[in-house]
Amino acid sequence: MTTKTLCKTTWKLAALASFAAVAMNGAALAQDKIPYPVSTSTMVMQSSPGSGGDLFLRAVADAANRHIAANFAVENVTGGSGAKAMALLGKSRGDGSMLMGVSPTYVNTSLLSKPPVGYSDLQPIVRLFLDSVIVVVREDSPYKTLKDVVEAAKKAPNSVKVAVGEPGGLETQTMIELMQKTGTTITVISHDGGGDALLSVLNGTADFAIGEAAELRGQLDARQIRPIAAYTEKRINGFPDLPTAREQGIDMVVQKFRGIIGPRNVSPEVIKAWEDAVPKMLADPAFKKWYEEGALIPAFQNHTDFEAFINNFGTQQKEFFLANNLIKG
Amino acid sequence: MTNLYYVWEGMTSPSILLAAVAGVLWGMCGGALPGISTAIAMSLVLPFTYGMEPSAALVLLGAIYIGSEYGGSIPAILIRTPASGSSAATVVDGYAMQCQGRGGEALGLSLVGGTIGGFVGLLLLSVLTQQLSKVALWFTPPAYFALGILGISVIASLSEGQVIKGLIAGVLGLMVATIGTDPVSGVMRFTFGFPELMGGVPVIIVMMGVFAVTELLMQARERDYPEDITERSSRLKLPSLKKLWQLRVPQIIAIIFGTIEGLTPGGGGSIAAFISYNEAKRWSKEPEKFGKGSEEGVIAPETANNVVALTALIPTLSFGIPGTATAAILLAALLIHGLHPGPNLFSAHPDVVYQLFGGLFVANLGMFVFGLVILSPIIWLVNRPRAYLRAGIFGLIFSGIYSVNGSEFDLYLVLAIGVIGYLLRALRFPFLPFVLAVVLGYMIEANYRRSLLITNGDHMVFFQNPISLGLLTISAIFILHPLYRQFRQRRDGSQVSRPQES
Amino acid sequence: MPTQIISGVVLVALAGIYWFQADVIPKSPMSGSVGADGLPKLLAFALGGLSLLLIAQGVLSRSSSPPADIFEETEADRVTERRGHLMAAALLVVTILYTVLLPYVGYTVAMGLLLITVGVFYNRRLTLGIGMFAVIGAVVFHLIFITLLGVRMPEGIWPDLFAALHTSRP
After folding, report:
1. What are the C-alpha distances in Å from A53 to residues A76, A115, A210, B400?
2. Sorting pLDDT into bands at 50, 70 and 90, what band is A252?
3. Burial per residue of B184-220, b for 16 or more beta-carbon CB atoms within 10 angstroms, e otherwise
């Protein structure tokens, strides 16, 4: 009994701290807010608190609270790599009371594990960002550009090794595309996560790694690793001297998107509210500071474009999975 | 000098003190609930830390980690239910002691062991971070593979004289570990179309199944129910200094393996606890007591997982690479507060780092004090009549397992594993090799195949890497030596004494 | 011991099934030289071989020293053993029932039912104490896991039922 009351006290203390935080952030003006069909809305996140996706959605909810006349709160519904969250969203009403923050994972999970509710059963609403995916090497590496890596791989197949995160993920896909485009063979070593992959570069197990700029910041600042290319459309704001893969003659852009989706029957009012709000949110100074620090590239797409984008992405992923035997036709 | 001032500030600032105390308490309570892993206990609180000052937020989370690693040992010892993977190794001898009415002693050992582990880990963290962060870089795939082999090489000696049955149990465990996404190519293996199995069978579910569910099924076989005996558990009893000195070898072993596992990503508490348990047995003067209530068997894993809780912060702070899934949440908290972990963190934000160390010192102390206070009511709770206790344990297991993934599938999974455990025990197969193989299987296979990818299929890499060579040599000696001894005994004794085999 | 021989045979069969399941693991160009099916096939062979050894050991010990075996079973032992397995199976059925009912009756009610059935199972009879324990226990579990930890436990049919009642009564 004692333990329980004590636990509760802890909980209350923590709750108090959070209340203070909310009170500080909620000091926006009530006027000029975009109307919304419901007063409270839950934003579902498939990964656990503290993960990249979770931080993204919390920042979005925070900014949305300042620009949309509703209260957005994030709820983490983990399990089945998003299958659980998609099932919950699929059951919800289309009045905007439940939305979901997504990354390519939700499309991949839909294809790989065929859950009851998949990406094609849900409605894309808006796209907000693309992650800046970059290629890094150890500071003392002989490779100065992505071209150097490709040249070395051409000379001796399988002599160049790349560290990627989880097997079968977007990073592996990027590598396969690179190999196909350049006609090289590079050894792809998958790890249990991006952190492990970075360690492999630091200790020389792998020659280079692919990752998101935000995750690599600590090592980049300490000059232990060096970026050699960015898989983005344009040069990244925080890295003006870093040439893109395209500039180096390799025509590749990695589309690691972040957006908001709803259930199939989501109402036009909800879509309209988000389409109006996102440009305002992206100009919001506090939000801007947050996403620029994280090297996220604002890449707003309205409902129609985002839907087309997702369908196209889904088709591409399916082809990739089929070609690599990750799913059966 | 200013750094020392920051440490002092961390130990005296009211907000940090509050965070340390509240965190360690919450961690102990959460950690003691099966299924509420350290990561869950921390992530539940994480949103509330967004508005706190950075050092208090970090202390709160670090304190939860410390408290939770200890808290897990309470149900492990008292009701044979490991609350997390890292407390599973404690079950074996902790629960054996509880059955002998020495539960209070076991709790004392784990409390003191955990506190010592915490302080040693904190010392390493605060003094040797820069040096130890280099150790993390020594561990390449061949070295991880060899570490896994060292862990698993103990199977024969865990087999209680039944080598064939022990090996079979080990192979079955490795089979369970192959379920899920292939670590190298990402194809699905043995998932039979269940999306829930994509990530593999979670270690915590295996542990709860094999230990807790199996035990409850075994207890169902009891024919008569004698009236409840209440002297099953004694009062909390702390070990004397003399006893601690006698138990120095398992503690040193625990500190070594706890540090290695804390520094290297992927391993985490469960591997550290099991390897420490194994090695404590191997180096023990009384290995025959293991599994039957050995004090060394309790203090080794419990010291190890608290060492991990602190040394896991070394790569988190100095590389920005978390040593465990739990440390990943701490990393998130750093990022939320705009602190970029990495080699520059110590020079850019010494105040936050050293206040964190000060706060963790308080948390460790707090854990010891709270342990003294909360254990008595918990022992009281466990001494309720058996029917109530066992029904309550079932309730805890099912609630805890459900909360891991919010999935009913996991409930069936834990029951299935419980049945496997029941069959193993009923047919007199040793079950420890099974558990050990489940814990280590993934690490061994993934790193074996990664090593071969790097060398394009050349096995020599395992003998060229010094760490791998060393660990493999030790493993080989440990496997061959008992066989050699047995062979000599058999030859010397010829037909006089045949070894007991069933 | 016949049980040893039987378990050996079952394990050989398991090894066979596992091998065939390993054989259908999709091939992937990213698998490396060992392949995703490398370890599984090795394990299938290992299990098969060890199980054969187990059978051989069983046969040998049976033919060499049957009466001196310490595990020699009497008829009474065998009855106790069978009864024990039945009891364990009964408990297993109770827990499976809980899992089946959980999505329908919701977490709190299912927990109360689980506590009372398991309590009666071990206690051998229903007492007022067990009944009260089940009710209080269900509430306490609800408080810990739903209220305090905020776990999204199954709600069961109650919310839908309640909503239906609410709308049918204008």
Report:
1. 10, 20, 18, 25
2. very high
3. bbbbbbbbeeebbbbebbbbbbbbbbbbbbbbbbbbb
Residue pointed to by tokens 């300042």: A66
Q: What's residue B494's pLDDT? A: 53
The two three-digit tokens of residue C26, written as one number: 């999709």
Single residue among A215, A230, A245 that ends a domain in this structure: A230
The crossing angle, in degrees rounded to 10, of helices B248-263 and B295-311 is 30
Is the residue at A250 inside a domain? Answer: no
Residues facing A75 on adjacent strands: A44
Q: Is A117 found in the same domain as A148? A: no
Query: Which residues of chain B lie closer than 8 angstroms to A11, CB-CB?
Result: 26
CATH number, domain with residue A144:
3.40.190.10
Cβ pair B37, B204 in contact under 8 A: yes
Alpha-carbon torsion B316, B320, B326, B330, what sign?
positive
- How many Å lie between the alpha carbon of C41 and the closest alpha carbon of chain B? 10
* A61 and A121 together in one domain: yes
Mutate to test the interface with B, among A76, A110, A199 (most CBs of B within 10 A): A199
- A171 in a structural domain: yes
- Let me know if residue A2 belongs to a domain: no
Asked whether residue A7 is assigned to any structural domain, the reply reads no
* Predicted ipTM > 0.85: yes
Q: Answer whether A202 sits within 8 Å of B199, measured CB to CB.
A: no
Partner-chain contact A84 B453, CB within 8 Å: no
Residue A67 and residue A137 in one domain = no
Q: So what's the pLDDT on residue A17?
A: 41
Angle, to 10 degrees, between the axis of helix A83-91 and the axis of helix A104-113? 100
Could you say which of A180, A212, A230 is where a domain stops? A230
A124 and A42 together in one domain: yes
Structure tokens at B222: 């009891």
Higher-pLDDT residue of A293 and A60 is A60
Total domains present in chain A: 2
Candidate from B178, B218, B501 with C-beta closest to C39:
B178
Starting at the edge strand found earlier in the chain, the sheet holding A71-76 runs A71-76, A40-45, A98-102, A257-263, A122-131, A296-301
Give the pLDDT confidence score for residue B282 in this predicted structure. 87
Please list, in sequence order, all residues whose beta carbon lies within 8 angstroms of the beta carbon of residue B95, skipping any fewer than 6 positions away.
B76, B77, B78, B79, B80, B211
Containing structural domain, residue A214: 133-230
The string of DSSP codes covering A61-79 is: HHHHHHHBSSEEEEEE--S
The string of DSSP letters for B227-289 reads PPPSTTS----PPPHHHHHHTHHHHHHHHHHHHHHHHSTT--HHHHHHHHHHHHHHH-S-GGG
Percent of chain B with pLDDT over 90: 41
Residue of chain C whose alpha carbon sits nearest to that of A168 = C30
Tell whether the model's pLDDT for residue B215 goes beyond 50: yes
What is the Cα–Cα distance from B331 to B339, expressed in whole angstroms? 9
Using the beta-carbon criterion (under 8 Å), do A326 and C148 form an inter-chain contact?
Answer: no
Specify whether A116 is located in the same domain as A163. no
- Helix (H) or strand (E) segment spanning residue A261: strand A257-263
Domain boundaries, chain B: 2-493
Which of B114, B128, B113 minimizes the C-alpha distance to B24? B114
Give tens-digit pLDDT for A75-109: 888 777 788 889 889 988 889 999 999 999 899 88
Given the structure tokens 């007063």, which residue do they identify?
A39
Cβ–Cβ under 8 Å, residues A36 and B51: no
Tell me what the mean pLDDT of segment A278-293 comes to.
91
pLDDT (tens digit per residue) in B174-196? 999 999 888 888 888 998 878 78
Measured CB to CB, residues of chain C less than 8 Å from chain A are 26-30, 144, 148, 152
Question: CA–CA separation, A14 vs A37, rounded Å?
Answer: 32
The confidence score (pLDDT) of residue B1 equals 65
The residue with greater pLDDT, B501 or A141, is A141
